[in-house]
Design brief:
Two copies of one chain form a homodimer.
Chain A: E1 4-9, E2 14-19, E3 25-31, H1 43-55, E4 61-65, E5 80-81, E6 84-85, H2 86-90, E7 94-97, E8 101-103, E9 107-111, E10 114-118, H3 121-132, E11 137-141, E12 146-152, E13 155-162, H4 164-174, H5 190-203, H6 206-209, H7 212-218, H8 227-241, E14 252-255, H9 261-270, E15 275-278, H10 281-297
Parallel strand pairs in A: 1-4, 4-8, 5-9, 11-14, 14-15
Antiparallel strand pairs in A: 1-2, 2-3, 6-13, 7-8, 9-10, 11-12, 12-13
Helix pairs in contact in A: 3-10, 4-8, 5-8, 5-9, 8-9
Chain lengths: 298, 298
């Protein structure tokens, strides 16, 4: 088998991994070279900086997931429409260098008359399915733009984006609520966080629920140090409110960063929803599995 | 009757009016001296700049509504708890100068275990009730923080704040959506606006619905020039979604600025809800009616 290299190339960062023949990561690197930092025509040079040494000899195969496949990226990999399985994505790779560097397409779906999109998360979901031995379920990928992904019989049926992380940042930094909140990042106050989750679900509208962060401060009903956790609970609770979690027969799989995943797990458990987790290895496993599929096809 | 002066003293602006004996405004002034611009101890001087000439001779009575009664204002006028009628507010005025300058208290209420507050809108609601001959109904005051106010038998029973205008500004200026939206303020695109209203209601969660402004642009399904109106429809639709408008037997009364009120009227009519309006005169009528009440009590 050829040496396999995986890249997770997002908007603001670039991670690269070299795999051994069993799919284990033997080397991993991180560069502050998200696609927004790459000038036109500059993608091959940044790729070489990241993993040119691993590609030497011409035998290696590199697979790239994430925003590198967007219109502002290296080579546009058109969105693959849902429902889409692993094989559909493998058949729609965009080759930056034929036979050598392939870009994984993102997915699109349509609901309520408007499209939704993701790039990179599809690879994480397929990787998590491999790691956990799943072929169906509900997956959440917390982030600036969280994704909720429904999988059945090995195919991604559809998904929804929630701008949760971005709304939190806007409210935290730029809104009137920022005046009541302390600077800096403190530890999570689990009690305030859970109160926020419950309040958002009870109220059912973040435009109204968010104002409670101001009035609780105004009436000295919550210490300032607890308000960021409360606000985080409000936005995550608002996201969870739309998920029909009561109808689930299987645990929700949280695929996320060490910073965010524990908050989602805390919120889901507080609502009585069973949870399982897959970490940052999900991307690597997804890319490696896709490379193996290509090798078998070749 | 003594000469009556009314002030609408908010966070970012100050308006003053002089009334005749029938409550008509004979002079009106506007100053860029919201309470945030007033240094500690500076309120009497700004008041004199605004209407000192109208107060000369010592006979006039001035009534002040708005954030001038907040903790950061001239004299704190503690919130009056709902349900509260016109008489409850008149009995709880805070006197900046005894017998001469009174500040109208704001209102507070409690729901879902958290407080809500307003300052200034209570005066607009009582003024609109006088102007329209109402003693009950549902009132909306669009703005940075919109208020929905329920009135029964002449008393404000309760209300809810929605951070609609603020969320719009955050998304318009600071979010990823800002990249797809044109600079500047164009005319309202009524069709895009109504589509936004309907989409927000259909989706039922702004964290998800807001992302459609990005994907509609990404797939060239909506021209960039229409996106600000669409986004405005999304946030206003999200606000209206929580109002149980189907159960109303009377029109909703919109009390608002010429900039915002027409959008709310358009959205409500698109949802089949009857609407009536009261304009910026509502504050003046409310203040004048309160002054008359005081004169009768004296």
């Amino acid at each position: 088998m050829r040496p396999i290299v995986g890249l997770d190339w997002g908007t603001s960062s670039l991670r690269a991994a070299l795999f051994d023949a069993q799919g284990r990561v033997t080397q991993e690197r991180s560069l502050p070279r998200g696609i927004l930092t790459v000038p036109p025509g500059g993608f091959p040079a940044v790729f070489n900086d990241a993993c040119g040494d691993w590609m030497r000899g011409g035998k290696a195969l590199a697979l790239v997931a994430g925003m590198a496949g967007s219109r502002q990226g290296w080579v546009e990999a058109p969105y693959c429409a849902c429902p889409a399985g692993f094989g559909d994505i493998a058949a729609r790779l965009a080759w930056a260098e034929p036979g050598r560097i392939a870009i994984v397409p993102g997915l699109s779906c349509e609901a309520e008359g408007v499209p939704d999109v993701m790039r990179g998360e599809e690879t994480q979901v397929f990787g998590a399915m491999q790691l956990l031995g799943l072929d169906s379920g509900l997956f959440v990928l917390p982030g600036t733009h969280s994704k909720w992904v429904r999988v059945a019989a090995g195919r991604i049926e559809g998904f929804e984006t929630f701008m949760t992380g971005e709304f939190y940042g806007l409210l935290r930094q730029h809104s009137i609520l920022a005046r009541s909140l302390p600077d800096g990042v403190g530890d999570t106050d689990a009690q305030a966080f859970e109160r926020g989750v419950q309040h958002a679900i009870q109220v059912g509208n973040l435009l109204h629920a968010a104002f409670s962060a101001r009035t609780l401060a105004l009436f000295d009903r919550m210490p300032a140090a607890a308000l960021p956790s409360y606000l985080s609970g409000l936005v995550i609770g608002e996201e969870l409110r739309s998920q029909h979690l009561g109808a689930l027969s299987e645990p929700v799989t949280v695929i996320g960063s060490p910073a965010l995943a524990p908050r989602y797990e805390l919120a889901l458990r507080a609502l009585g929803v069973p949870v399982q987790s897959a970490g940052s290895q999900a991307t690597w496993r997804g890319l490696w599995a896709m490379a193996r599929t290509l090798e078998h096809l070749a």
